[in-house]
Amino acid sequence: AFFGGSQAGGGSRFGMRSESPPQNYEIEIGLEEAYHGASKTFFIPIVTRCPKCGGKGTVGRSLCPQCRGEGQVQEEKKIEVKIPKGIREGQTLRLRPDGQEIFLTIRYLPHPLFKVQKNGDLSCEMPVPFLDCILGGELDIPTLQGKTVMKIPPLTQSGVTLRLKGLGMSSTGKNSDLFVAIKAVLPIRLDAKEKSLYEELKRMSETKTRAKV
After folding, report:
1. Higher confidence at residue 191 or residue 3?
2. pTM of the model
């Protein structure tokens, strides 16, 4: 289990999953941070020995008022985490703040465009004007490396997936690709000239179909 919420300075709170050393946590990062690498600040509740009783749970013959006999207290620590370039979801970072061993398991935040596959491939859906699907064209595609131009072959059907090699989560040197699903977009309205042209195209298509029959 972990706690949500943001702290001053851009850090986030994350809850503890195990109270006995080493301690384990999950941290969430964006895809861009995972791809390029980043330095982030997190506020983590770390269990430490009670400073009042030294971990005994008692002060003299009385129950320790600070840890209530547990011998441990939870302290929120601010830690700086260096996110390695190309880190994958599920990988674990090992840190030793103040000599205390902790493990941080990486989770990706949902991305507004990309979905990540287990092998590091990325997938997304892009709207394409239907005339570009019919006649072919070019489309600007956002990637984790920046924008690139993807060629749309003539007569590309809606739902077809095109591959951009090496544009997945491949910053570690491992090959992974970006798969773009094409979604043909029809015009919302037509002016008189456009309507006339489409009607002529329809007549030509019907004549061609009858000739084949």
Report:
1. 191
2. 0.73
